[in-house]
Structure prediction request, 730 residues.
Amino acid sequence: MSPKKVAIYGICTALVAALTYIGFPITPTRGYFNFGEVAIFFIAFTIGWKEAAICGAVGATMIDLILAPFFAPATLVAKAIEGALAGAIVIAFINSKRVTLVRTTAFAAGGSLMITTYFLYEWLILPLNLFSDPGISFYSGIGPAIAEFPFNVVQAVACGVIAIMLTKGIERAYPRIADLRG
Amino acid sequence: MARTALVDIFVPKQSPLHRVDPRIKIISAILLTVLCFFLSNLLVLIALLLFLQALIWSTGVNLRTYSSSFWLVARFSIILMIVWPFFDHLGEPVLLDLWIYKPTVPALLRALTVAIRIFAIASGWLMLLLTTKHGQLVRGFVKLGCPYDFGISLSIALRYLPNFLGTIDQIKEAQASRGLDTSKGDLVKRARNMIPVLIPTFAIAFRAIEGLSEALLSRGYGANPVRTYYRDIKMRASDFTILVSLVFIASFVVMMKFLGGASF
Amino acid sequence: MNQPPHVSISGLRFTYSDGTEAIRGVDLDIRHGERIGLAGENGCGKTTLCKHMNGLLSPSEGRITVDGMDASRMRTPEIAGKVGYLFQNPDHQLFCSTVYDEVAFGLRNIGLDDGNIKRRTERYLGMLGIDNLSSVTPLTLSLGERRLVTIASILAMEQELLILDEPVAWLDAKQTAVVANAIKQAGREGRTTISVSHNMKFMAELTDRLIVMSQGRIILDGNTKDIVSDPAAMSRAGLVSPPVSLLTESIKGAVQFTRKVATNEDFVGCLRDSRIGGGAHGAR
Prediction:
């Protein structure tokens, strides 16, 4: 890997982790609303799908291990596929003039995968009660999964919109960003 | 300042835990996490947590640094316990009856179990971070099979994470002094107000990327596919012992749960 | 002139959340229109003290009022129209696509209408010599130019109290002169300025009152020229006099100085007074 790529992976992971960290607790089960997605979508829009997937997964999981450890396995998978799909869509339509539309589709698709992953995890996997926790039924199962759902949607949409504004702003304020792709 | 508590907490002292091979500490943290998921007896969990805290204390950790990390995790657990009775009303005796907020003793005990479990898991990882320098941590991951490039990227990420957190705070202050309000207003306004904070953050990150790649290049990165190491890590007999005992205990617990339905 | 002080601090103590005691008892009154210099070694508490004046920090003990209002109860964005704070690192602020927008940002936040925004932006860009950069992207400029943009964006807000953290750091000679003039102009327009700097030459030329801190306390507070030209006081304070004062000290035996020398003007004036090299035709 070239030094530039190594630096990109390292710094982007730190960015995702930093933005994931500055969240605040809202939902009792999942734990918190965070801006990590903004970084993941941004990386998907401007750098690449691999970087978005890996930096997103590692960065977010790092923080989840300490703050919301039960969801760490879900986070690892959810953010990886979210970043990968969003990044792939952007690359597929890289020559399109309708940049905002492409990016919106990208974050909507990626976000949906993320929400679905968490939903399935809470509904089906946690209740398997691999952990024989008597309290398990109160933060897993269809009830909490449905309760979680709107928060996750709000988070994905808010972060997606911010990411789009952010990308436009950065492209205007710091044109050299185009060098980072490829 | 408290922001950076969680990720820059290496304690530069010498203790038995500091000397344990980083690979063992990484594996221990993982095993501990898995183990905690399987433990559901409150007393066992509390005992485990106390044991882990005692281990952490034995490393000679600085109370100030540690308490910032400690309270970060504690805050999350406390919120969990407070909000729990909104969702779990089962059991007797009922302590309060306020429409949808009905704390009962069994429910609170369930909440406490989850909270203690989170704490125990976090303690395992905290122990890793407290006693392992970044360089050693990365070396541990690399020797466990991660590609060297991954190791360097991880090391960069760990090193820059506290920087970015501090920078974000400074940017918030600077923009607030220009009249930017990030904590008032409806959701839309608050989202928009994050942009003047995020753009400088990302711009600084990109400057860091450019600077880093030049620094790496000028130090011969990538010149030779096979790399030698200045300070290598070697497993010692005591490390093996720890590893074997841990695997043994973990397997024992898991087996007892699945076979005997033991009440761990 | 019996106005109440612009800033009034009494019994201020501040301890950071990790236990460091940054301010250990400060009492200070600053009058309207004063040009204050704040100096001291790194870690002495000067930045911490300044951050109390615009609401970024709240005292652990003691009181601080700005214009009669309790500053610890004010939130920084709300007080931004009255207290301006120039931060050292321009990269913590620049985010717009043009220099013009960057300066206009703060003005919009304090509620100015478009006409006034245009007027002020053009005025201050001109004052700092960067009006030719008005439509350039700030983040592509050199470090010195980026600093000029942030200085313009704070000065344009025309707050009554202006706190400047190392205003001339990283600037070349020409840029330094331009900024010094802009700060002098702010003083002429009646604004209270507090400049935090290690640059004693700058302090001597642009401030009237020098406050020196050490380990969370004020150890010196007096007329800038008096302090700066007194080598004993400076060494007690751990500071270095401006070059011209050092020169004065070293040739004190050979030349008689009729007044304190803190700036180049003082030096030249003294030479004229002592009639070196020319006698009577040294004009006053």
In short: Residues 2-132+234-260 of chain B form one domain. The radius of gyration of chain B is 23 Å. DSSP finds ten helices and no strands in chain B.
